Amino acid sequence: MKILVIDGQGGKLGRELIERIRAQLPDTFITAVGTNSLATQAMLKASPDEAATGENPVVVSARFANVILGPVGIAIADSFVGEVTPAMALAVAQSRAKKILIPFNRCDTLIAGAGNQSGDELIADAIQKCKSFVES
User: What is the rounded distance in angstroms from the CA atom of residue 78 to the CA atom of residue 57?
Assistant: First the structure.
């Protein structure tokens, strides 16, 4: 099972996702892709199996992933102050992978029904959804 974690800006969410995936699904192969080098560096601290930065790694990795996790902005062109290119958003949207997107109400995108859960609650829910899919 190949899991792709994509994050941008400071990479804190991506790092937390990788740490929790590692703890709960230790036998999965995790690829971390940052939309910038700072995000990738942060995710590397969580010991993914491989890591890269930028548009082409998102496009290529999305083709081979079984699950994609990250903030909802990874599927919205020009989000993260322009870090997510149209090609990145399209690659995520068109991937055959199961997409588990965390609904942070940022980047001028408000998700109806997302509520006001804490970041920790959103991450826990995302990991539970990933775990259910991987173990099924």
Answer: 17
Q: Is residue 95 over pLDDT 90?
A: yes
Type of residue numbered 80: F
pTM: 0.92
Based on the structure, what is the number of domains in the chain? 1
- Domain harbouring 24, CATH code: 3.40.50.720
C-alpha 127/C-alpha 25 separation (Å) is 9
Close Cβ partners of 69 (under 8 Å, ≥ 6 residues apart):
3, 4, 5, 6, 17, 21, 100, 101, 102, 126, 130
Strand ranges across the sheet with 50-53: 50-53, 29-34, 2-7, 67-71, 98-102
47-81 per-position pLDDT tens digit: 999 999 999 999 999 999 999 999 999 999 998 88
